[in-house]
Design goal:
- It comes from Intrasporangium oryzae NRRL B-24470.
- With 200 residues, the protein is α+β, with helices and mostly antiparallel strands.
- It contains nine helices and five strands, in the order βββαββαααααααα.
- α8 packs across α9.
- The longest helix is centred in the C-terminal third of the chain and has 16 residues.
- The chain is globular and about 45 Å long.
Amino acid sequence: MIASLSGTVLKAGLDSVVLGVGGVGLLVHTTPATAASVRPGQPADLATSLVVREDSLTLYGFATDDEKHVFETVQTVSGVGPRLALALLAVHSPEAVRAALGGGDIAALTKVPGIGRKGAERLVLELRDKLGVLPGAPGQPAPSVESDGEVWREQVREALVGLGWTVRQADDALDKVAPKAAEGAGVSALLRAALQELGR
């Protein structure tokens, strides 16, 4: 098991990072917030979880051990795979996931693409007492939006479509959060705001 990686960021996508470790570039799937927190050419440390399938080895990376713990724990529920677990962390912080599970907040859980009411109820039933509080280091601050106009819009739209919404739904949400971009909000903050709009 590859529990963590330390190396130089070779490439940062919207929801993935290529980390150079010992001369090898490793593709690590992340949440948009984690991908936005690193910069090419800079060092990065990621807690990682290796998902082994018959035809693939896939690495998932996290800014904190707490995110990794939540990612791995929610997959113990039948029907929840790594993609859905990552989508859950893209929409909610680990603290928000714990609050939703502990309080039986079905509405919060169904904001995640791919989680319906029955799935949310199953998550609450099976994980209410499993996700204990873990001391986690705070994540790195999100960078502010680049000054070249609408770059943030393309990035956030791509993330929303990747999480399961249509382009039209994504664009409607982007129009609503545009004022925050004008105020200098970061891409990850804009993504969270757009997710909140879509969850209304």
